[in-house]
Fold this sequence. Notes:
4 copies of one chain form a homotetramer.
Chain A: H1 19-29, E1 36-40, H2 46-54, E2 59-63, H3 67-79, E3 85-88, E4 102-107, H4 114-124, E5 125-135, H5 138-150, E6 154-169, E7 172-177, E8 181-188
Parallel strand pairs in A: 1-2, 1-4, 2-3, 4-5
Antiparallel strand pairs in A: 5-8, 6-7, 6-8
Amino acid sequence: MHYIEDTEFIRGKVPMTKSEIRILTLTKAQIGEKDFVADIGAGTGSISIEAARIASKGYVFAVEKNPAAVKLITQNAEKFEVGNIVIINAEAPSCLKQISRIDVAIVGGSGGKIFEILDALDAKLKIGGRIVLNFITIQSLANCLEWLKYHDNYSYENIQVQITRFETVGAYDMPKSNNPVHIVTAKKINQKRCANIIRLGMRS
Amino acid sequence: MHYIEDTEFIRGKVPMTKSEIRILTLTKAQIGEKDFVADIGAGTGSISIEAARIASKGYVFAVEKNPAAVKLITQNAEKFEVGNIVIINAEAPSCLKQISRIDVAIVGGSGGKIFEILDALDAKLKIGGRIVLNFITIQSLANCLEWLKYHDNYSYENIQVQITRFETVGAYDMPKSNNPVHIVTAKKINQKRCANIIRLGMRS
Amino acid sequence: MHYIEDTEFIRGKVPMTKSEIRILTLTKAQIGEKDFVADIGAGTGSISIEAARIASKGYVFAVEKNPAAVKLITQNAEKFEVGNIVIINAEAPSCLKQISRIDVAIVGGSGGKIFEILDALDAKLKIGGRIVLNFITIQSLANCLEWLKYHDNYSYENIQVQITRFETVGAYDMPKSNNPVHIVTAKKINQKRCANIIRLGMRS
Amino acid sequence: MHYIEDTEFIRGKVPMTKSEIRILTLTKAQIGEKDFVADIGAGTGSISIEAARIASKGYVFAVEKNPAAVKLITQNAEKFEVGNIVIINAEAPSCLKQISRIDVAIVGGSGGKIFEILDALDAKLKIGGRIVLNFITIQSLANCLEWLKYHDNYSYENIQVQITRFETVGAYDMPKSNNPVHIVTAKKINQKRCANIIRLGMRS
Lengths: 204, 204, 204, 204
């Protein structure tokens, strides 16, 4: 259960999921050795690289629109000698069409298109497959929960995680809080879809 | 129950207790109109000024060693037209001798001398009086709790408060967490002291 | 700044806002001596009674649908000898019509009708008036924030408060966390309304 | 990175580390395939069993004084078919003498003997070995931090983790907070010991 520390990744100015959130997200994703994993909003690639090490006989599709971030993913993939990452320098969800199959999806960022991304992932996701999402804003979280309420072929768990790191300053341990993150873990239990009519209730 | 917003105080670089912590601290202090209040580690004077408005017929003794902070307390006292604050530009606890009587004490900072400060306050505090303390570090909090365990003539409450402010960024509300603060409220229920021998167990 | 402790209120099985949340809610409401205050979802009346003590020359309209809770409000009003509470045993928002004017509104519970309640309060609220809302669920909070985004004649603050109380067990202080509560403070800065068309985007 | 859910373990009335804390604790422990792991205060054995699956060619020494808990560890070890757990039904630290070598130690409960337990673990722990501790109380945490301050041959990290689980109630997600847990991860960087004299400052 060895993992890569935050400081080991090449970062630049691109925001990165902190280690505790990364670990919980990857663990809840229950990635298998031969899985096809989609990492939406891959950022520095910290999740993609850990996922690729777990899915050693599968593939990770790292979707990231920001070219600066794409460069970091490439550099980190090289640094950690991971060969099974396919970088897709485009914006979700349109680019998801080119992925043949998805066993597990991890959504780090949705760029305000959470409904469209969930629809596109749902179209590719196998039964028993998981989507694990990280949310910072109330609005994106609420939209995801609304999507899940209308798609009762998914069971889900929703937790808020607040990590405070205590830094040693002389004889004292001083707290420094990270911002709270919601981790939503959705599992596809069958193929049944909800009627489109219901979608009228949703916010776009 | 009107209160002063953080932004209304003159601040400079001196750290200031955030409004929610200030409000809870002042409320738990149960300050009376004629009370003598000691504010240890007064900083910008935000607590002292609110306390002085409540103890309108009493006095607030603002103890602060940092001259830059003392200047801010003076400026804020002028800005909010509070005349019943006595500024003591010295370090606690030695300077507490000059205070004749204490009905309520608020400790924002202890400078690593929490045992000595509590001893000095205890010597002046009336029965039924309160000491409300804010702690950021585990060590200072633990020392305070240890002092209280050995001084069973005090009853106390200990809460941790974590405030996360959501800032509007376009269509989204983004979280920004303050660091957690412990608010300890101790009430002196009688005069009985503990034996000095017990103090040997304490850390200095 | 004296306040009533949780234990002093007559409670029964009706849920009650915990003291720290009650204090912060009341403080952010900035209630004036002559204000007309609406307390929606009054529960045990803990907020109504504190509000009535502040608005000593005004009135508090305690709106509560649950008869068992109404009985508690009456008993608590008697216990704390508060005479300026008008209990409205009905469900918001329909019953709000009978209130002539609202200077401050506090919403403890919205029963899934947050849009309708905000619309009804907005119709009565003076310019410069405040609505302070407590939320536990993501959905009600998100709906409130959406209403506020569409009503840019309100400025607002949104904080999440997490209180952990440490209980003494022998030589130890053991934590017991309350569930996190969001406190949204909205201030009406002018009378301008948003176009109804925009409302179509909303969830009902 | 598959893990066992809380509900899969046989539990009874014995308290169990919740999954997120278990996962973070195990990950920070960086257990190797051939490691000898000491699990102090093993409880239901949830940590021991996960550790035994990682240290598949090593051993886990599950130290637990409570006979009821020992029975659960045995039952869970059978259920998950783990053969490399040695159960020590005794109280730490005295029983730690019988363990020949420790590569990683996990401390879930210290029964008020944290100094003695850390001393005993330190005597067996290899250089580069890790001790990962979970703390709920301020006092035990403070004592651990004090031990670490006096043992500068250890580097450490200290985080507080607060998990809030949102349970679906009809159309809503209602929060339910777990109590905050501190996870302290100490790494032995060399063999140097501190002078005993310093220990006088410590609380026992």
